[in-house]
Amino acid sequence: MEFKLADIGEGIHEGEVLRWLVHEGDHVEQDAPLVEVQTDKVTAELPSPVAGVIERIVAREGQVVPVGTVLAVIREAHGAPAGDKAAGASAAETTEQARREAPEASGGLASHGAKPAVMQAERADGVKRRALATPHVRALARKLGVDIEEIQGTGPVGRVTEEDVRRFAEGRMAPRPPEEDVAAVEPRAERAGEVAAPPAAPKAGSPKVTSGEPVEEVPLRGLRRRIAEHMVQSKRIIPHATHIDEIEMDALEALRERLRPYAEARGAKLTSLAFFVKAVSIALKEFPYVNASVDEAQERVWLRRYYHIGIAVDTEQGLIVPVVKHADQKSVFEIAQEVSDLARRARENRLSLDEVTGSTFTISNAGALGGLYATPIINYPESAILGIHKMSRRPVVRNDEIVIRNIAHISLSFDHRIIDGGMAIRFTNRVRELLEEPDRMWAELR
């Protein structure tokens, strides 16, 4: 059978083969890990869909391949050589076959609570179908100690999703209500839980290397290559503009010190970043275009009525952006605890796909590293990103007197197609007033 790159997660269109965990001629068991694949979000181990022998490895390490590409050929332990088989049973093919078999009346979705006919159905020979799931989801189920065959999938034609596995592991199998409330109907790609493949970046020429000079060649691979592609895409599509301001942090620092013991009692490390996340989630409700994205193909702007805040984390592998979902509905203590947990697991490369996707606005906190200010690049397809920079004690004028205050710089890069300078300044002013007078933050929660 042909082992193909299946859809590792919603919206993934390609992956980079990082490392093969087996060699040609190796015997593998069903669900044994075969290869590590890097997407633009996470690194995933893909397991074998069958037991057998690795007859041929097709995709080489470092190669970027689209979904559906044959990665390897496996000779099944109970069957004939792969060359004698008419077709493989890859995850992608299994899903496509189920989609064709699904009755039209169901619409291919479990959107009305009806269980798709293909879920847990039995073949004519009485053998129960194998649950529809991607290799990444199967690996997650094994990690959480869950039998994936017992899970009723809520994805298209009954496919078991990552969220299904997590809900099952937590003992709450009721389908989660829709979380997206947008100002207009989502584009077709997003309605299907997918994101249109980004346009290919133009290939740059190879730089010339002076003969005889010492040069070290390092492959541009893995997460670093994904970051490079994402940054080029953002700068090529979005006309960036940046507004810079400063915030007096004394009142916030005093409040943080008073609340620190209560946070520690809840197992949370209370940092100023948690307050920034909360202030931003409040301000975004008043400035929906700062929480939006542009759909050029349909000539529409999608105003997100939910508030998922991405937090840029500096790791050895590169910049990773885990997401605090529904930040507007969480307390500062809860946000602080979640940010700490996400940052730790980001550095350990243990984040799931769901934890690094779906952000509507991003915060990049480089204050601990130093520097006066910077112009951060927008996390495409979002419309803005807030940079937090070094806080230091500086002399400022207050009531015609020179006093010492804790001052931090912030910078808001924004999409000038839909956000003008006035809106960017008013949004930043709103965030600043909430942080300079943090008592107002509690008073305005709703």
From TrEMBL:
Its cofactor is (R)-lipoate. The keyword Transferase applies. PROSITE patterns: BIOTINYL_LIPOYL, LIPOYL, PSBD. Residues 81-95 have a biased composition (Low complexity). Residues 1-75 form the Lipoyl-binding domain. Its EC number is 2.3.1.-. Residues 132-169 form the Peripheral subunit-binding (PSBD) domain. Belongs to the 2-oxoacid dehydrogenase family. This is Dihydrolipoamide acetyltransferase component of pyruvate dehydrogenase complex. It comes from Alicyclobacillus vulcanalis. The lineage of its organism: Bacteria, Bacillati, Bacillota, Bacilli, Bacillales.
